[in-house]
Amino acid sequence: MIGHCHSNSSLNKYCLDQGFPVCKESSEIYPGSESDGCKSKNLVTERNRRTRIETGLFSLSARGPKISKMDKAAILGDAIDYISELLKDVKNLWDEIRMLKKRNAERAAWS
After folding, report:
1. CA 65/CA 11 separation, integer angstroms
2. Does one domain contain both 72 and 89?
3. 57: buried, middle or exposed (CB in 10 Å: 19+, 13-18, 0-12)?
4. Which of the residues in the chain have pLDDT under 70?
5. How many domains does the chain have?
6. 9 lies in which domain range?
7. Predicted local confidence at residue 70, as pLDDT
8. Which residues contact 61 (CB under 8 A, 6 or more apart)?
9. What is the spatial distance between Cα 77 and Cα 72, in angstroms, rounded to a whole number?
10. Phi, psi of 53 (to 5 degrees)
């Protein structure tokens, strides 16, 4: 029922109280029938959502060094692989820092 218009004002109030999106009466927002207003609003919302996803995928593909294909699954898979490699690099660098600190502490103890 989320995102659908309801003629029952108590249901609208309940949905709003619960944090669910509810269209106002169509006559307040859109001319025409009640369902036309919500359909129009939902179409715009869905178009904006798809645009944000496409923009994010394009941005993600531009930041990854080795994106194999330009389809959504490949971009996400390559980004996951790249992030995994970066996490391994971070772990290796922290291990090296710990080793160097330990070596410096041992040298200081012998001095």
Report:
1. 51
2. yes
3. middle
4. 1-37, 111
5. 2
6. 1-63
7. 80
8. 67, 70, 75, 78, 79
9. 9
10. -65, -50
